[in-house]
Amino acid sequence: xxxxxxxxxxxxxxxxxxxxxxxxxxxxxxxxxxxxxxxxxxxxxxxxxxxxxxxxxxxxxxxxxxxxxxxxxxxxxxxxxxxxxxxxxxxxxxxxxxxxxxxxxxxxxxxxxxxxxxxxxxxxxxxxxxxxxxxxxxxxxxxxxxxxxxxxxxxxxxxxxxxxxxxxxxxxxxxxxxxxxxxxxxxxxxxxxxxxxxxxxxxxxxxxxxxxxxxxxxxxxxxxxxxxxxxxxxxxxxxxxxxxxxxxxxxxxxxxxxxxxxxxxxxxxxxxxxxxxxxxxxxxxxxxxxxxxxxxxxxxxxxxxxxxxxxxxxxxxxxxxxxxxxxxxxxxxxxxxxxxxxxxxxxxxxxxxxxxxxxxxxxxxxxxxxxxxxxxxxxxxxxxxxxxxxxxxxxxxxxxxx
Length: 402
Ligand SMILES: [Zn+2]
Fold this sequence. Notes:
By secondary structure, the protein is α/β, with parallel strands linked by helices. The protein is 40% helix and 20% strand. The protein contains 13 helices and 14 strands. The longest helix is centred in the last third of the chain and has 25 residues, at 300-324. The site of zinc ion (ZN) has 6 residues, from loops. Residues 245, 255, 257, 259, 262, 264 line the site of zinc ion.
């Protein structure tokens, strides 16, 4: 028997069923394109007439378009369907010092990418980002821009869509969404960077059959997105998953959140740079990508600093494994570019003397920084459809036709 929350009852109307079936058809098209209506009917189990109706609607809404004719050895030729690549989202990946502004099509392909430097002034920074967007648009005359998706190093209140916790940004309270919507005349959706990475994995990569994934982003901070029992967990005010700010040592280094010894003060890229300075005080200050480069070139202090960071990433993962028992943990961030060297350290530390049961698979996320951009685009492409978590929980359980 399923557990029904009586405080939030929503009856499955025929409209809901139609929306779910529509999204199943859309997802099957994404995964198997190009394909015919008959293929869709076979793989969804939906009647041909239902599939045809949904496809007509998707063509009208410009999500799907007709392509080549397939000529089977016997029978009538059929028109193949694919996702409409002319549907494009502007994707923005915001970091404390810079933002990447990109255009991404419905298949998750990156069409353009520009870097914009940011300052501690949110209004001036937003102006730089919108100017960049306005420069990009004329280069896409035949594309239909659906909206703007933003990946942020912080938490966004799901109700108000305001940034409520972004300790690394050092921005005062600011309505980023309203400012960009007013300038661009396009809808804006925002999400935490870890969640956008998770959405990119769920939308464009798929880890078949896995319903328990924790994704950890390691950059200026350490962020986490939790997909448990097939649902994205948001928690009260969207604050779930702040493992990066769980304190491992109350007398440790001061964290950007104001507390001491948070996991991120041990495991972030900033922590690795600090370890390097401690080991080699006479060296110049380096950026994280330079640290990776130095380690590759044989600098033993750089290697030791990264080993220590990897050890602490693994140590923090123990908390996640004990609390959530995920089947897969995905690590996103620059450190994945040297996964062969430091991944095993993370894995060994995380899975040493854990509780009973199976160890999770600990893997690098597929595409590093591009994941944030594709995830930000996925936020836009969810428009009008059922949300990803509903889709996930209903996948495989086809809804009654109507
Ligand atoms: Zn903290």
